[in-house]
Design brief:
251 residues; mainly alpha; two-stranded parallel sheet; 10 helices; 2 strands
Amino acid sequence: MYDDLLAPIKSFLLCETPEKWIEKAKQPEQLQLLLTDHMICELKAAQTAMYLIRKYAVDKDSGEALLAWLAPYEAFIYRKQGSIEDLASKNKLSKQILPKSTSAYGQELIDKMVLLIKEELHHFYQVLEIMHQRGISYESITPSRYAKGMISKVTSYEPYTLVDKLIIGAYIEARSCERFAKLAPHLDDELNSFYVSLLRSEARHYQDYLSLAQQISPEDITPRVEFFGKLEAELISSPDSDFKFHSGLPQ
């Protein structure tokens, strides 16, 4: 029933998730790691969106409100402060987020990124709830090579730095969506339903990133999309000693 939704994602990505990754991911002993990494990835996606609009689009007061919005989630992940009960009511903004007068980007970038942040933080809490219900405690893990490998190739001058980061965001969201779909059939009913429920928002996120990248770029973004597509596929299909939600071929 999700073939139409997944078709453009499969076309956008230059490779599918290797079967060896799926075989390892569906092992019960990997569930704690995958849920933990998934939860952290949701926060990272929210942080990335926040960083982009704080740096490029919003006024000072709005930037402070964005920082305050994410602060309880960051305290939980990085300093192990707070609890699931503390986070239950934290997915709220304290004020309207407005563009700064000198911004060249404006309200559309802000509105799309604020919606993305809200959804990613909601997904963060949903994963935390699942972990809590299953008696899985949160433990810190090291980041994978995936996002770092792509960020290392970002152009160093504007507006192409922003364009590249938006394209990378599109690939991360698209790969997440593809992996949710690949993994869901191998999970129990609760996790299957949860991962399937994430497909629609993740699919829209990647399209939003690409749309914004083309609006901001003075040139056709196709060459950069192809560049990062090849890099992303290499990271996914090449041997990787560190197993994570976005890792490559398990060794």
